């Protein structure tokens, strides 16, 4: 069932561009699907049935319990990482 929907694309509210479903189910962090999987894909196919069919319950709990960092926190982390790289150069 996983491969049947990988070709579908939609605009990602986080990344801002067209993203295929295959990306969403692999790049949510820690190798898990994105936590917005249900919110984004419900109009395209029965995403709840897909998640229930493909992932064990403990993985489902991890996927949807994890909260993404706020954008400002992510930006600060990126700035700090860049600053450290330039200091060591």
Number of strands: 2
> What is the residue-mean pLDDT, rounded to a whole number?
87
Most strands sheet: 2 strands, antiparallel
Distance from N terminus to C terminus (CA atoms, Å) equals: 47 Å
- Give the DSSP E fraction (strand runs of 2 or more residues): 5-15%
Percent in helix: 40-55%
Strand order of the largest sheet: 1-2
How many distinct helices? 5
Envelope shape: elongated
Specify the structural class.
mainly alpha
Low-confidence stretches: none
Description:
The chain has a two-stranded antiparallel ribbon with strand order 1-2. The protein starts with 8 loop residues before the first strand and ends with a helix. The chain is mainly alpha-helical. It is elongated. It has five helices and two strands.
Features of the shown structure:
89 residues; mainly alpha; two-stranded antiparallel sheet; 49% helix
Describe the secondary-structure layout:
Elements: E1 9-11, E2 18-20, H1 21-24, H2 37-41, H3 47-54, H4 57-65, H5 71-88
Antiparallel strand pairs: 1-2
Summarize the structure.
This protein is mainly alpha-helical and 89 residues long. The chain contains five helices and two strands.
